[in-house]
Amino acid sequence: MDRHILAGLDAEVSALGFGAASLGSRVGARAGQRLVAQALAQGITWFDLAPAYGAGQAEEIFAAAIRGQRDRVQICTKVGLAPPPQPLWKRAVLPVARQVVRNIAPLRGRIRKSGITSNRPLPLTPEVLRDSLERSLRRLGTDHVDLYALHNATPEALADEALLRTLEDLRTSGKVRAIAVASDGTAAEAALAQARCVDVVQCALQVATPALVSRAAQAGMGVITHSVFGLNTSPEDITQRIAASSDLQALHAAAGAPSPAALRLMAARLRNPGGVTLCSMMSSAHLAANAAVFAAPLSSETTALAQALFPQ
Q1: For 199-256, how does the pLDDT look when each residue is reduced to its tens digit (9 = 90+)?
Q2: Beta-carbon neighbour count of residue 259 at 10 Å?
Q3: pLDDT tens-digit series, residues 55-78
Q4: Contact predicate 305/251, CB 8 Å
Q5: CA-angle at 24, arms to 62 and 224, nearest 5°
Q6: What residues form DSSP beta bridges with 77?
Q7: Which candidate, 137, 118, 113, places its Cα nearest to that of 63?
């Protein structure tokens, strides 16, 4: 697994991060714990969590999976979102509903549109920041998190003096090693512009332009990207473009004929070489395939192919 020092945190991390948004919702507790164990075995040490993830269960599932191994992982958790209400009846039917929804793709879309699984935004106030962190620490079974991220922070929140003082206090207390903004491009730019308290920016891959990554490096800040498979190129389009070009065919063959999904991960790795690329890995096969992309240096042929298919 490719590892390097993440700027802003000044700690060695895995270049591939485990996005835990589905632990407890689309992935049950036992399966989720097995996936976390597999991730650790394959060299993944960065785990991205939040109180709202997995219908509010992700942090506890993760804590059970790493019990006795806290020193092997880096934990990012967030503040700013709460899970949807979880009455007892809803928790009781979740395992059955998970299996039904998994087998019926159109049903997943209708459930998302209904809003019943939507997380609830929370105001970013000093009280909410402190309370959310304490609750997360209890669920995670640890005395600190490596990164505490403001979920969907606005530029206005990043200019709030009381909020900034609270973040400084939390970092000074040792309960938080570094602070991040996990939001859109506007908030990422605001964090880079003022660079107070914020050590890391987390954003969609499409937002992480070369200019943003470069500015973050100059400011001594790390970059974490997500939504890798949101690149505006379908697997079919990638396959067709390779088939239509003899040069791309030659590069593709020399690179070992990577799949469209692997090529998108390679592009993500190239765009943010000193940061962390987050993926939601909901099966053992997907996890192994993703880890393989980050397991060895990228060849010149692979680099050229990914850059040709996904120009920045």
Answers
A1: 999 999 988 989 999 999 999 999 999 988 766 678 899 999 999 999 999 999 999 9
A2: 13
A3: 899 999 999 999 999 999 999 999
A4: yes
A5: 60
A6: 148
A7: 137
- 16: Cα within 13 Å, side-chain hemisphere: 26
Between CA 281 and CA 16 the distance in angstroms is: 11
Nearest to 265 by CA among 202, 201, 300, 309: 309
- Report which of 28, 27, 32, 37 is spatially closest to residue 69, judged by C-alpha positions: 37
Strand partners, 178: 147
Amino acid at site 114: S
Please state, in angstroms and rounded to a whole number, the distance separating the CA atoms of residues 212 and 129.
Answer: 27
- The 3-state DSSP class for residue 191 equals helix
Q: How would you classify the pairing of strands 222-226 and 276-280?
A: parallel
Taken in order of first residue, the domains within the chain and their CATH numbers are 3-83+119-228 (3.20.20.100)
DSSP run (H or E) holding 237: helix 235-243
Residue 267 identity (one-letter amino acid): A
Torsion of CA 210, 251, 277, 110, to 10 degrees: 110
Residue 63 CA to residue 69 CA, distance in Å, equals: 10
CA distance 188 to 208: 9
CA–CA dist 112, 64 (Å, integer): 28
